[in-house]
Amino acid sequence: MSAQRKGEAVTAIRLEERAEYAPAHLESIRMQSVTKVYGRGDGTVTALDNVSIGLASGSFAAIMGPSGSGKSTFLQCAAGLDRPTSGSIFLGEHDLSGLSEDALSRLRRETVGFVFQSFNLVPSLTAVQNITLPLRLAKRTAEKAWLAEVIDRVGLTKRAKHKPGELSGGQQQRVAIARALVTRPRVIFADEPTGALDTRTSKDILRLLREAVDGLEQTVAMVRHDPIPAASADTVVFLADGQVVDTMSSPSPERVAERMTHLEG
User: Which of 9, 80, 178, 259 has the most beta carbons within 10 angstroms of its beta carbon?
Assistant: First the structure.
């Protein structure tokens, strides 16, 4: 699927613009009338306000917006890390609202990968042990051929036995990406995955996420502030005041920066 077609697919299944959902196999993420409210009384904050959107399977979406626009809450709710106050969220055919905490945890382990700015590696474990940790927690055995391929894809074959303290920041993020890939997830959620890295390393990390979409047909949903990394995506979803205010297909850094200027103005 071309970048333009992927972007069009995301826009085409925005739920507020159609009465019916796309088939589950065409969407990895689907949000219907999702609202998330924190606090009570005068301290109430509406982080997401009636959000309805679908993200096509096998696409790369960047989630952008001003500070406080609801980007992180969007990601946390979509990934099943936080429950919405109202509305429905689907990961593929699974309705998250109908799942117990145990079932939700199991679904995340089996279908979701996470990459965060802080890496979240276990210091006492080697790179390969960190990569296979989700499998061990799920009481699954790593497929040797797939594990070797994942480690090779992220360029860590010679560093697999090193602990995080012996790796650079970029190498640690590569471990995090390999950890996200090794379970063969349907969706990879990435929250500012290059925020702590230099420009060259950031490009390498974005290339790996791009390869997960193009080579492995996975879906990537990435929160970013910077227009340049966001332009690696097929589509940019713009949030403001907890609402989806726009989507952009085949984005360029210039177009993204201009749209963000209007949102922040």
Answer: 178
